[in-house]
From TrEMBL:
Residues 21-259 form the ABC transporter domain. The keyword Membrane does not apply. One of its GO terms (molecular function) is ATP binding. It comes from Algibacter mikhailovii. InterPro entries: AAA+_ATPase, ABC_transporter-like_ATP-bd, ABC_transporter-like_CS, P-loop_NTPase. This is ABC transporter ATP-binding protein. The keyword Nucleotide-binding applies. Keywords: ATP-binding, Nucleotide-binding, Transport.
Amino acid sequence: MDETKHTRKKAEANKSKKLMLEIKDLRKSFGDNHVLNGFNLELFEGENIVIMGKSGSGKSVMIKCLVGLMAPDSGTIKIMDRNLLGLDQRALDELRSEIGFLFQGSALYDSMTVKENLEFPLRRHKHKFGDLTDTTPLVQEALDSVGLVHALNLMPSELSGGMKRRVALARTLILKPKIILYDEPTSGLDPITSKEIIELMRSIQNKYNTSSLIITHDVDCARVVSERMILLIDGINYAEGTFDELKTSNDKKVKAFFK
Ligand SMILES: Nc1ncnc2c1ncn2[C@@H]1O[C@H](COP(=O)(O)OP(=O)(O)OP(=O)(O)O)[C@@H](O)[C@H]1O
Ligand SMILES: [Mg+2]
């Protein structure tokens, strides 16, 4: 493990902060494929953590466990002090409305307009906003946060890749989640659009004071967006630290990442 002075100092500072998410000893295998082998993570209020790991290392599996889309074999996941794995469906749904999930790719519903895409989570999580007769103000606010109010009535097929990602982000934001999970937010986008999305992620964090987990291959995204990084290697949180600390690490496996 690459534990550095800085990380320890940070850990001291975090003691006074609220723990939003805690993963302990998470394990998941598919037959002989042991994907997660005891992964740990702590995410504090207002913090952004980037998780990097090579393709197939289990990043998406981890995030799916976090939102209850996949059941881990063992381990604990605590979200805002509630134990995710012991919740019944109703409690799980309620907790889910506090967690925004930006899927890998944008995963918009192709047969729905932008507005309908954004209304979808509002209908699913009625307990949070009640039975809304007019969703327009919430839809407009979310679209405004990503600079796309004019796209309200467009179909996904009429949007560029960057616009789709923005709409997906607006759909994530509309429930005003306390935690946002981003699975490869910039993949498939050109460098300029990627930069815009990264800016947007930062402005959203400032505006709503969310905590984020960001999974990315994009080294620029990792550098700009996070205070702390975790490298997922061999199914564990193999190394942690700031971008600069990890970049200058002498560990062979860590070094391989920055080549
Ligand atoms: N539902 C599933 N059934 C069986 N194996 C699975 C399933 N989901 C994921 N896996 C396996 O788990 C491993 C990790 O997959 P995962 O999608 O988490 O990788 P990843 O780190 O997100 O990769 P990428 O960077 O390419 O998105 C892979 O070997 C994959 O084949
Ligand atoms: Mg993935």
